[in-house]
Specification:
The chain has 3 helices and no strands. It is mainly α and about 80 residues long. The chain is elongated and about 55 Å long. The protein starts with 16 loop residues before the first helix and ends with a helix.
Length: about 80
């Protein structure tokens, strides 16, 4: 396990082991939170992702206006189904 303070090199005497562990723990928490948020956003927007993938398979490229329209259509389908 690479500690923040060591990174494979000799540990700096300016950073105590406890501080290094605290930093590692906080970085781990931030990464896990970001991963969880990203995973939830992808799951919640799976319909938009699938529509986007299908549109790209059909058209190969899309501009911003086309992407915005695709998102609006998917959101309106959500509103109807709720």
């Amino acid at each position: 396990m690479n500690r923040f303070s060591s990174g494979g090199r000799s540990r700096s005497t300016k950073t105590s082991e406890k501080t290094a562990v605290d930093i590692d723990d906080e970085v781990r928490r931030i990464v896990i939170d970001a991963y969880t948020t990203a995973k939830n956003l992808l799951a919640e927007n799976r319909d938009i992702l699938d529509a986007f993938a299908q549109a790209l398979l059909e058209r190969e490229t899309m501009d911003g206006a086309e992407i915005d329209e695709l998102i609006r259509e998917a959101q309106s389908r959500r509103a109807v189904s709720v």
